[in-house]
Amino acid sequence: FLSSCAETLLDDFLLTYTVFMTTDDLCQALLRQYPFINHQGKENDSDVSCRKRKVLHLVSQWTSLYKDWLHEDEHLKQFLKTIYRNVLDDVYEYPILEKDLKEFQKILGVHRRHTVDEYSPHRKNKTFFHQFSLKENWLQRRGTMNETEEIFCRVYITEHSYVSVKAQVSTSALDILKIVAEKIQYVEEELVLVTVTFSGEKHELQPNDLAISKSLESSSRMFVYRKDLTDSLHPFGENEELQQRSVRILGINTWDLALELTNFDWSLFNAIHEQELIYFTFSRQGSTENTENLSLLLQRCNEVQLWVATEILLCSQLCKRVQLVKKFIKIAAHCKAQRNLNSFFAIVMGLNTASVSRLSQTWEKIPGKFRKLFAELESLTDPSLNHKAYRDAFKKMKSPKIPFMPLLLKDVTFIHEGNKTFLDNLVNFEKLHMIADTVRSLRHCRNNQLGNEVPSKEHHELKPYVHHLHVIDNQQALFELSQRIEPRV
C-alpha cells in the first residue's frame, strides 16, 4: 500500500508527533483529510478512495504502535467512533474499504475490552501508562492506583541502606516483612514495619495493613524496626547487619544467577514503550509520570551497581571477599554471554566503584586469569570514541538483547540538544527522523522473546534473591565500610 520509505516516514511521524501537536490536533487533522462522499465531481472516485484508505492506514498504524498508551484518551475514542461511522457509510460506494472496515472493528473491539477490563491482571504491561502531549504538557492521570499494579518500593533498614522490594500495591505488611527478614537474615517475629514521615512521625503497620498503599498515602518512608520483649521499637544502627551475616551468594551457581538477573531485566525492558524515550528526552519538568517502565529499568541498573558494592563491603573476611569479587566477575561475563548489557555494565561499574577498587589487599589476591577476564570486560565499558567498543560488540549480538539504557538515552538527548526542533516555524523532520531511528533500535532488540529458563528448583530459590536487592545507597557510608575492612596503611 505504501512504499517502505513512506512507511518509515509514517513511523517517524507517529513516534514523534507529540513533540509538536496534541492527540486532539491529530484527530481533527485526520478528520479533515478524510473526504466525504464525492457528489460534486471535483475528485474522481479512485482519488477519493485512495485518500480515505491512507487516512485509515495511518490510524491503523497509530493504534497498533501506541496500544495501551491511547486507550484512555477520550479524544481518540470519539475520533475512532466518528471514523468508523464514516467507513460504514462509505463501504457501499467504495467496496475497497471493506478490508479497512474489518480492521476498524478489531481496533474498536480492543478499545471496548480496555474499557470493560481496564485493570485486568493479565495485561502484558503491569506498569500503567498515562496519555500525554508534550506540546501542552497535558496529562490525563488515573484517579487511583490499581491494587494489582507492581512497583518497586524501598524498605529502609537504616538511613542509608534499604531492601528494594518488587511487589503489588495490595501487598500486606506481613508479606513485605517476610521478604525483608529473609533478606537481612533476621527473625521475622522480632521485626515490625513502620512508616516514618519526613517530619519524623512514626506509625507501626499491622500485619494485614496494605503497607505500600499506606506509605504512598502519607508520603512516608517504610522502615523495619526491631521490637523487644516489652514491644518497644528500636531502629537498626548503621552497618549493624554486618555482624554474623552469611555470604549467601557464594553458594549460588553463577550462570543461574546471571540468568535470573537477565530474566528480571528483560521483564522490565520488554515493558518499555518506545514513546517513553521520546517523553524522557523532551520533557523539561523532570517528571517520571510517563516514563514509569523506563525509570524502573534505570533504577534497577543503579541498584545492581550498589548491590555489588554492598555485598563486597559487608564482607569482613578477606578470603570470602576475594571469592565474592571473583564471583561477580564471572556473573558479569555470563550477563554479557546472555546479551544482557544492562546488568553487565552495572556489575562492572559496581566493581569499579571507588570504595571497592581501593581494596588493594582484596585485588592482590585475585588470580591472574580473573584479572585478565575483568580487564577484557572493562574494555567494553570504555567510553572513548563514543563507546565504540560497546557499540561494535552490541551490534554483532543477535536479538533478543538488552542494551545499556543510559547510553541509548544519551544518544537521543545528544540528537535533541544538537538540533533545533523548529526551523523557520516549520517542524525539523530531519531531527525527528534521527530520534525515531534511534528509538526504533528497541524493536530490533526485542525481535524475539527471551527463551532462557532457570530450572524450577533454582528459580524458586533465586527469585527472591534477585528480585529484592539489599543495597547501601550512600557513597559516604560505603567508603566508611571500605576503610573499616581495609584501613589506609
From TrEMBL:
BP GO terms, sorted: Ras protein signal transduction
One MF term in the entry's GO annotations: guanyl-nucleotide exchange factor activity
InterPro entries the UniProt entry points to: Ras-like_GEF, Ras-like_Gua-exchang_fac_N, Ras_G-nucl-exch_fac_CS, Ras_GEF_dom_sf, RASGEF_cat_dom, RASGEF_cat_dom_sf, Ubiquitin-like_domsf
Keywords per UniProt: Guanine-nucleotide releasing factor
Stretches assigned to the N-terminal Ras-GEF domain: 1-109
Cleavable signal peptide: none
Annotated ranges, domain Ras-GEF: 253-488
Domain of life: Eukaryota
SUPFAM superfamilies cross-referenced by the UniProt entry: Ras GEF, Ubiquitin-like
GO cellular component: plasma membrane
Pfam families linked to this entry: RasGEF, RasGEF_N
Protein name in the entry: RPGF5 factor
Organism this protein belongs to: Amazona guildingii
